[in-house]
Amino acid sequence: MPLSNRRTLTQYLIEQRRRFPQASGELNALLLDVATACKAIARSVAFGALGDPAVQQIAQAGSVNVQGEVQKPLDVISHEIFVRTTEWSGNLAGQASEEAEQVRQIPPGYARGKYLLAFDPLDGSSNIDVNVSVGSIFSILRAPGPDRDCTEADFLQPGTQQVAAGYAIYGPSTMLVLTVGDGVVGFTLDPNLGDFKLTHPEIRVPADTQEFAINTSNKRFWEPPIQRYVDECLAGKSGVRGKDFNMRWIASLVAEAHRILMRGGVFMYPRDTKDPAKPGRLRLLYEANPIGFVVEQAGGRASTGRQAVLGVTPSSLHQRIGLVFGSRHEVERIERYHQELVPSEAPAPLFAPRSLFRN
Ligand code: MN
Ligand code: MN
Questions:
Q1: Distance 286 CA to ligand 1 centre (A)
Q2: What is the C-alpha to C-alpha distance for residues 315 and 152, in angstroms, rounded to an integer?
Q3: Largest CB tally within 10 Å, which of 46, 71, 113, 323?
């Protein structure tokens, strides 16, 4: 007997399965394991400066993750929690983590399953010290070869192939936001019962917005289409957009995505010229694809600036990519600016005014 009218995550998944008889029980079980991992990470993060006693045991001083950033203990514990909570139940054929260089096999002794799980166990971890929201991001793919060891190549599927994706955000409340390809739903963790309860049954990103998010300190490295877009936002009412914009920047992808899912906006971490070795900052498999899937399922758009991010075939496990997502009309505008000649580069005056007024 449910204690309130709000459905739990378990109830929601069971009801979804009744609606879609082809949906697999294994996927539901896997999603519940992921939710358990997120609850455990939420608890660990909540210890803050006190330090989770469990973290103290696992912390390895001085270890460095694949991307060369100094790994904080909570990154390590979150990775361990994700691995351990999802490997045992016979639903996975392999795992890939932002915190591990190689794909991870399901240990001998556990059954293999038909799905692959890619995850960023603790996104925005540099925000931990200042007590700003962090999160976890996950992406579920079908395993091409469920009966053998998984390979890196198995994970290199375009984002359109995702079976499910989502994130947990550890903010003032803990939330789980999820898509199984049928819209986007949000659950809030009831701290008394430890259950995720359905609080946001149909999340939609409004098509228009007056809010953008970008790290302006990189302005000198931006490509012309992004320069143009941001300049036009900054010009506000007096410029070609004819309306004022607000700017936000949390520097935590999950927190930015969540704000945009709740009230619209556009987020940009575009490809830039800062470091030729890094064409973009965010990781395609662990960040851009799952967030892109959620945003598109909510009616928004996710793009590299040049093409739909979900259409990109990954070339490596830790590939980085430019990412622009959020309110559809703004993302489409940014894509259009990439396709068009920018006014300053236009060979003939004809192009500039036309591109400004076209919608
Ligand atoms: Mn991250
Ligand atoms: Mn991370």
A1: 7
A2: 10
A3: 323
Domain ranges within the chain, ordered by starting residue: 9-200, 211-339
The CA distance from 104 to 83, in Å, is: 9
Which CATH code of 3.30.450.40, 3.40.50.1240, 3.50.30.40, 3.40.190.80 fits the domain covering 211-339? 3.40.190.80
Spatial CA neighbour of 244 closest among 218, 205, 212, 215 = 212
- Burial (CB < 10 A; 0-12, 13-18, 19+), residue 262, is middle
Domain 9-200 and domain 211-339 have a common topology: no
Centre of ligand 1 to C-alpha 48, Å, is 19
Note the ligand closest to the C-alpha atom of 252: 1
Q: Residues in the chain, how many?
A: 359
pTM: predicted TM-score of the whole model, two decimal places: 0.90
Distance from the alpha carbon of residue 147 to the mean position of ligand 1, in angstroms: 30
Q: Could you say which ligand is closest to the alpha carbon of residue 65? A: 2
Closest ligand to residue 167's CA? 1
CA of 166 to the centre of ligand 1 (A): 13
Q: What is the whole-number distance in angstroms between the Cα of residue 170 and the centre of ligand 2?
A: 13
| pLDDT tens for the 359 residues of the chain, in order | 455 789 999 999 999 888 887 778 999 999 999 999 999 999 999 998 888 776 665 554 445 555 554 445 788 899 999 999 999 999 999 999 999 999 999 999 999 999 999 999 999 988 888 999 999 999 999 999 878 999 999 999 999 999 999 999 999 999 999 999 999 999 999 999 999 999 999 999 999 999 999 999 999 999 999 999 999 999 999 999 999 999 999 999 999 999 999 999 999 999 999 888 888 999 999 999 999 999 999 999 999 999 999 999 999 999 999 999 999 999 999 999 999 965 555 444 444 444 444 43
CB 298 within 8 A of CB 203: yes
Point out the ligand nearest to the CA of residue 255: 1
CATH number (2.40.50.140, 3.90.550.10, 2.40.160.20, 3.30.540.10) of 9-200 reads 3.30.540.10
CA of 124 to the centre of ligand 2 (A): 6
Rounded to an integer, what distance in angstroms lies between the CA atom of residue 291 and that of residue 123?
Answer: 12
Sign (positive or negative) of CA dihedral 144, 150, 153, 157 = positive
